[in-house]
Amino acid sequence: QQSPTDLIRPRRPFAPQEVEDTTAARCAASFRVLMVAAAFRGKGLLQRHRLVNEALAAELGRIHALEQRTLTPEQWAEAQGGQ
Q1: How many CB atoms lie within 10 A of CB 59?
Q2: Name one GO molecular function term (predicted).
């Protein structure tokens, strides 16, 4: 069975900063992800989530729930305290 990171990480142009399996038994059915991508610039929340869902279309059939936090690189830098 693939890990949550293996299921999601290879999908570009989105680079997950965090992937957490939130399934009670950690059986890779529900995830919380933080995605950072320049492709999110100028897009609203729904548009960003649609981009991620399209990129993960093949995997979504095996995923019960996907909680997304989608940020631009600038928003990510700001969230990290400007590091």
Answers
A1: 19
A2: 2 iron, 2 sulfur cluster binding
| Lowest mean pLDDT, pick from 7-11, 23-27, 38-42 | 7-11
At CA 52, angle to CA 49 and CA 57, rounded to 5? Answer: 120
User: What's the mean pLDDT when you consider all of the chain?
Assistant: 80
From residue 10, how far is each of 26, 65, 83 by CA, in Å? 20, 19, 25
Residues 77 and 38: beta-carbon distance below 8 Å: no
- CATH code for the domain of 46: 3.30.300.90
Beta strands in 1-83 (DSSP E): 15-21, 30-36, 65-71
Number of domains in the chain: 1
